[in-house]
Design a protein that fits this description.
It comes from Winogradskyella ouciana. This protein is α/β, with parallel strands linked by helices. Helix content is 28%, strand content 22%. The protein has a domain of 310 residues: Metal-dependent hydrolases (TIM Barrel), CATH 3.20.20. The strands form three sheets. Strands 1, 2, 3, 4, 5, 14, 17, 18 and 19 form a nine-stranded mixed beta sheet that branches. Strands 6-7-8-9-10-11-12-13 form an eight-stranded parallel beta sheet. Strands 15-16 form a two-stranded antiparallel ribbon. The model has no long low-confidence stretch (mean pLDDT 96).
């Protein structure tokens, strides 16, 4: 039986413009977009957007949902629910779980977990190591988001630090290679100097000095140089410095780029001035750096040297975070509040809604060749988010959905709220409530 939903009286944000109109959804597909739509059917649901904005669901290209093996911090079910509350309808999850996703067998086990528990659409990165090239070559690029290499800051054996291996991987795969770039030798030297001065209780504001601009730039520039040499398709995750933005170009369209970049919401929002107040709760790798870096990252995002906005959602428990510097892990939860933070930046006049949609919805779809998602187009899957830009609310323990139970945005009042999230045509989130619907599907790719 055909199921119809009409979203009426919407400001539809898509492909650089905002138009007023209605959206007709039939089962899981957007069937029609028009100034006014009416359908005669006994099976029809009408949702009045009341003049609010309708965006494509965000595609978050970098999350850590901690399953399997680290589920005391988070799991795919809890974090995918939080993602829906944050307007993220599709996610790409990282391989540094326990066990790590460095064999095809372990990759398929994660897909099996997600097929039973994810409320949002999902895919996974395959993880590279110094010794798993044979497994990398078995991966079908049509069914997996891409390859993740830790060229710095890794857990377990996932640090890929053999230059010959890195070059071999770059030369051997046609998958998008996403990299974490921080130079380990530089960080080690800086950390040793700070331990000598402070012991384990290093002031948290020293984090961007230890994991410095130099450490980021050395690693990013080496990766880009190698990508140019080998012709690899390189995507540099979570830029954190203004200096690195000079390594990227806006001369050609994203679809033609071989080297791309991402920035995360926390590097656009926080600066080193916030460590005094937030402490380890804003300790990420790469580190949040200066307000000047933050300004330069936003500038590069707006002028298209940076292509994608993501979260790097990486929860830890408060018990783990509330430790001295050397034992407090890096990372924090973000999927529920990322879009709201971006909309707050819109309210501040820093970025247009159309540009947010381009960087958080359209561009991840282009970059990873995601099939029929990331846009509000007829024939595309109905992954949609309704946002009310004039309905303030405050982040507190009672409305946080992360399993870890905290947020770096606690106490922050956002001017906007997400009222509805649709996944594959199903209403999955409605005004602070995740509905009992598991509509998420495995992402497919046009490759």
């Amino acid at each position: 039986m055909r199921k119809h939903t009409i979203i009426k009286n919407a400001k539809i944000v898509n492909e650089g413009q905002t138009i007023e109109g209605d959206i007709l959804i039939e089962n899981d597909i957007i069937m029609e977009i028009a100034s006014s739509i009416s359908v005669k059917s006994s099976e029809i649901t009408v949702i009045d957007a009341e003049g609010n904005y309708v965006l494509p669901g965000m595609i978050d290209d970098q999350v850590h949902f901690r399953e399997p093996g680290l589920t005391h911090k988070a799991n795919i079910e809890t974090e995918s629910k939080a993602a829906l509350a944050g307007g993220i309808t599709s996610f790409i999850e990282m391989p540094n779980t326990k066990p790590q996703t460095t064999t095809v067998e372990k990759l398929e086990e994660k897909f099996e977990i997600a097929s039973k528990s994810s409320h949002a659409n999902y895919s996974f990165m395959f993880g590279g190591t110094n010794d798993n090239l044979d497994e990398i070559l078995k991966v079908d690029s049509k069914t997996v988001a891409g390859l993740k290499l830790f060229l710095g800051s890794s857990t377990g054996n996932m640090l890929v630090d053999d230059p010959a291996v890195i070059e071999k991987i770059f030369s051997s795969t046609d998958m998008v290679i996403s990299v974490h770039c921080e130079d380990e030798a530089t960080i080690k030297k800086n950390l040793e100097a700070h331990i000598a001065e402070y012991g384990d209780d290093i002031p948290m504001e020293k984090h961007p000095i230890i994991r410095s601009e130099e450490a980021c730039y050395i690693s990013s520039s080496k990766a880009i140089e190698l990508a140019k040499k080998t012709g690899a398709r390189l995507h540099v995750f979570h830029l954190s410095t203004g200096k690195e933005t000079s390594l990227f170009s806006n001369k050609i369209p994203l679809k033609d780029k071989k080297i791309t970049a991402e920035v995360c919401v926390h590097h656009l929002w926080f600066s080193d001035e916030d460590y005094a107040r937030k402490g380890s709760h804003i300790k990420w790798n790469p580190a949040v750096k200066t307000s000047k870096d933050r300004e330069q990252l936003l500038k590069a995002l707006l002028d298209d040297r940076i292509d994608v906005i993501a979260t790097d959602h990486a929860p830890h428990t408060l018990e783990e975070k509330d430790n001295p510097y050397t034992s407090a892990p890096s990372g924090g939860p973000l999927v529920q509040h990322a879009l709201l933070a971006l909309l707050e930046m819109h309210h501040q006049g820093k970025i247009s809604i159309e540009k947010i949609v381009e960087k958080a919805c359209h561009n991840p779809a282009i970059l990873f060749d995601v099939e029929k998602r990331g846009y509000i187009r007829e024939g595309y899957y109905a992954d949609l988010v309704i946002v009310d830009l004039k309905s303030p609310w405050t982040v507190n323990k009672s409305n946080i959905l992360y399993k870890c139970g905290w947020s770096p945005f606690e106490g922050n009042t956002f001017k906007s709220r997400i009222t509805h999230t649709f996944v594959n045509g199903e209403l999955a989130y409605n005004n602070f409530k995740v509905l009992d619907v598991k509509a998420g599907r495995r992402l497919t790719f046009n490759r």
